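Figure 6 in text form: structure in, sequence out.
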């Protein structure tokens, strides 16, 4: 005689109920299978050997208390051979039904269990997904590619340097959501062992699909980025967990771009402006811009190596600026050559420069101004201003006050005042680096004033005057030095005549 037994945990079903098995295939939106669930419906009858209501009620209580917990061992055997085993979830409420005898002899019941796809007759537990080894019910995923609003440009600077920004900058967004299911495993018969919470199953599944998929990266046939993708930066990953719902969502963002000709791993916006005014012959050119560094993050595997930032935004922005700061004059010169109609050249020494550093934002900003003033006379000067003033011949006369006369009497002396000339020279140098303590230090200190070089310029004016006039007399000769600011001013004046 064939002997069939069925039990769940410590509870033994007697008599063995009728069992129906339904297999459900779990699929993604693209119909790819992600798992299977076996629904087992039990329909049975409790039978009391003694005809009494309380006896049947006790049988119901025993069944009810035996099927309270998920994850106990369910075992179906036939002649001591295992037909089905596993650690299911209780999926259908326990219902008792009227049998027509007022529950004096019998009570019908229905109950359901849910097995995962891998719970087989030998009780093995091998997840359907070989990567994550996770048990999930649903999975959605989407990718979005958007071109950033960056106009491509390329130009050649006067020194033959070729500049361009990236051919493209594409923002990539990757969203995934999975819903897990609680899975139990052995070996105990009457103690449930939960492998992972449902949200942990979902998270484990998503971990196998994080990262930029090369199949989507180039977008052949649509965006056709080709092999020009040489930079993947600003990888930001966020995670959202629905513990009660058993869900997990991961969102990722990247910037992908062609870094081929860039001077560094950063993006730059800049403007070159020229200004001409009617009250000066000089042309002003300003170059201002912002450099935003790109970050290289590495999330690693979290087991042997944890999250790291291999290249910071600020380091990349600073490195980029270190290269292009030497190009700012060439950029200004390119714009200047386009508007200049004079014989003047653009002075390579900036009128002023402002550089801003924002480490927390990974940004370097700059603003440089140039103009077409003449080159400096002294090679080590930062700025120079030279003024020349000539005093011309004026009439000499006598102004005589005569009482009762309506105005003074002016008498011409028939002679002229001598011509004059005054020259002032101002320059800014690097301030001295030593203090004037002791004779030796004072000598070295004064040597940094550049007094001799400035006097040589003023002396040149005197030599020119002496070649023109027979009488040249110095009426003023001063020298001032602001040692803190490095500003020097010198002036010399002459009165001139011919014998």
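Output sequence:
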């Amino acid at each position: 005689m064939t002997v069939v037994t069925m039990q769940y945990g410590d509870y033994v079903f007697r008599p063995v109920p009728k069992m129906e098995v339904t297999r459900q295939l779990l699929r993604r939106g693209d119909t790819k299978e992600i798992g299977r669930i076996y629904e087992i419906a039990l329909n049975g009858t409790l039978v009391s050997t003694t005809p009494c209501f309380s006896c049947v009620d006790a049988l119901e209580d025993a069944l009810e208390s035996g099927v309270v917990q998920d994850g106990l061992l369910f075992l179906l055997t036939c002649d001591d051979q295992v037909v089905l085993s596993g650690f299911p979830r209780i999926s259908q409420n326990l219902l008792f039904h009227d049998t027509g005898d007022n529950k004096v002899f019998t009570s019908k019941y229905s109950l359901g269990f849910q097995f995962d796809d891998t719970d087989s007759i030998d009780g093995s537990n091998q997840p359907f997904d070989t990567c994550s080894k996770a048990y999930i019910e649903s999975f959605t995923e989407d990718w979005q590619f958007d071109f950033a609003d960056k106009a491509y440009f390329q130009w050649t600077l006067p020194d033959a340097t070729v500049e361009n920004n990236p051919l493209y900058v594409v923002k990539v967004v990757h969203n995934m959501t999975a819903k897990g299911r609680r899975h139990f495993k052995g070996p105990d018969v009457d103690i449930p062992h939960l492998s992972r919470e449902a949200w942990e199953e979902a998270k484990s599944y998503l971990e196998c699909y994080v990262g930029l998929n090369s199949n989507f990266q180039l977008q052949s046939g649509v965006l056709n980025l080709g092999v020009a993708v040489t930079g993947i930066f600003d990888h930001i990953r966020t995670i959202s967990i629905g513990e009660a719902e058993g869900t997990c969502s991961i969102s990722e963002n990247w910037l992908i771009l062609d870094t081929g000709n860039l001077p560094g791993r950063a993006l730059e916006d800049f403007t070159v402006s020229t200004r001409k005014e009617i009250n000066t012959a000089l042309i002003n050119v300003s170059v201002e811009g912002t450099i935003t560094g790109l970050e290289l993050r590495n999330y690693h595997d979290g087991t042997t190596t944890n999250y790291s930032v291999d290249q910071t935004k600020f380091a990349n922005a600073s490195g980029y600026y270190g290269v292009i700061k030497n190009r700012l004059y060439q950029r200004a010169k390119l714009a200047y050559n386009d508007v200049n109609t004079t014989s003047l050249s653009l002075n390579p020494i900036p009128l002023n420069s402002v550089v801003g550093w924002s480490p927390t934002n990974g940004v370097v900003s700059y603003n440089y101004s140039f103009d077409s003033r003449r080159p400096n006379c002294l090679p080590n000067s930062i700025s120079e201003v030279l003024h020349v003033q000539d005093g011309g011949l004026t009439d000499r006369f006598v102004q005589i006050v005569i009482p009762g006369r309506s105005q003074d009497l002016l008498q011409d002396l028939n002679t002229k005042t001598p011509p004059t000339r005054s020259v002032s020279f101002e320059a800014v140098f690097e301030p001295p680096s030593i203090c004037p303590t002791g004779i030796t230090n004072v000598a070295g200190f004064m040597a940094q004033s550049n007094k001799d070089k400035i006097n040589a310029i003023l002396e040149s004016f005197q030599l020119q005057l002496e070649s023109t006039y027979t009488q040249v007399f110095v009426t003023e000769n001063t020298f001032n030095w602001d040692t803190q600011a490095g500003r020097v001013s010198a002036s010399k004046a002459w009165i001139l005549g011919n014998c």
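Caption detail: Helices lie at 53-66, 198-207, 214-217, 313-324, 328-339, 439-447, 451-466.
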